Amino acid sequence: MKKETEVLIIGGGVVGTAIARELAKYKLDVTLVEKEADVCTGTSKANTALLHAGFNADFNTLKGKLNVRGNELYHQLEKELDVPIEWIGALVVAKKEAELAKLEELLENGQQNGVPDLEILKREELFKLEPNLSPDAIAALYAPTAGIVNPFELTVAFAENAVENGVEVLLEAEVLDIKEQGNYKLVRTAQGDIEAELVINAAGLYSDKIANMVGIDDFEITPRKGEYYLYDKKLDLDVNHTIFPVPTEVSKGIVITPTDEVNLLIGPNAEEVEDKSDLANTREGLDEVMSGAQKTIPDLGMSGVIKQFSGLRAAIKETEDFLIEASEKVEGFINVAGIQSPGLASAPAIAEMVAGIVEKEYDELELDPDFNPEHQGIPRFRHLSHQERAKLLEGNEDYGEIICRCESITKGEIIDAIRGPIGARTVNAVKRRVRPGAGRCQGGFCEPKVVEILAEELGIEPTEVKLEGQGSQLLVEPAKESLQKEVSDSE
């Protein structure tokens, strides 16, 4: 394959897909390439899923400016993209008199960033909001504009709405090399060559590698691992807000937060690693997460934990800030790098900023009058009323067959995920879209059924169905044939 495009976006995380959707508003030929078999497979799939209010990032940084703007934009996006956001608010809890000065500092910084309605709560007010806090909590900064979101649904919605508006998304299209060819870039990918007038480097952990391909070597990405515990949604311990300890110079500390599906999530710690694929949990790291969370809510423990996982943040150590700029060294090349926390909250504002840079590159951009900002998500059967369920079943009986009992996920939802604008092609891609395997049994019962549905929908053998990327097939051979062979060999 060889194709031409005006703008090529490298990276299918929340930032790359948000940029794709933003550029779809204009009369531009836009292509996005992602090296994995699905969008949202890197930093975007393993984070704390917070829409930060914006009080923590320094007001002199891009983080500080873009966090607040991004938070504001999500109020419209949740309606347009049909992605639920819970605006539950956040608390930064102080336990020592010496920490009160830091709360005042965060309050002032947040006000300079433009965060609305910040206030410092005294002990009595605090325990009315969070009765399970450590008894030695004395005050907290309260930020009511903080929210939580499902980062998988969000990233897929950005990407699918971009596709619905003409953007082409190529998966399993790792960028192998970039050459300058006159007034365009020749980008070699695993899916063939692409000629692009403008390249946007939103490759997350690998953005320094992509920049190096065109001779840019003035920043380096340091992978920073964070480990997490996820609890069963039936955990008998109420947490109503996202709860932070008072931050240090290097970390926001161990966060305790509900998720959009009412699970409890704790983490992350912060450990610099060399390997950009190192997602291994460690005993030391998990112990650090648990002990840190227990300092804020002592009743937390291992009871109710259903999963441990890790994520990597793409940090630029020298600045600890976002890098978003058109390169001065290479014409037609835009870096969007170092997007660590609050990257999820900032994503739509980053996309706005990048669109402004693209407009300067082209002198002027013309809005596409046919752009449709509305995206219809997959029906969430578990959240529907009895009347809504009955109406859905009238049109499609597959919504009457429960595949994942833990999360009440139907066959209809799974088929919708596979047939979507960016259809799920792996077990984990289905899980990211509609959650089978995300509950208490972690796929122990529903995963074989998901494999069966994928095989049927994709027209492949069950042995070809992958968990995630290349080489992750779940089945070796059909069980019946295997048993027949064992009997034959024993005779």
Features:
491 residues; alpha+beta; FAD/NAD(P)-binding domain; D-Amino Acid Oxidase, Chain A, domain 2; 3 domains; eight-stranded mixed beta sheet; five-stranded antiparallel beta sheet
Structure summary:
The chain has 491 residues and is α+β, with helices and mostly antiparallel strands. The protein has 13 helices and 22 strands.
Q: What does this protein structure show overall?
A:
The chain is of the alpha+beta class and about 500 residues long. It folds into three domains: about 1-85 and about 145-220 and about 315-375, FAD/NAD(P)-binding domain (3-Layer(bba) Sandwich); about 90-145 and about 225-300, D-Amino Acid Oxidase, Chain A, domain 2, CATH 3.30.9.10; about 380-480. The protein is built from 13 helices and 22 strands. Strands 1, 2, 9, 10, 11, 12, 19 and 20 form an eight-stranded mixed β-sheet that branches. Strands 13, 15, 16, 17 and 18 form a five-stranded antiparallel β-sheet that branches. A hairpin with a 4-residue loop joins strand 21 (about 400-405) and strand 22. Helix 1 (about 15-25) crosses helix 8 (about 345-360). The protein is globular. The model has no long low-confidence stretch (mean pLDDT about 95).
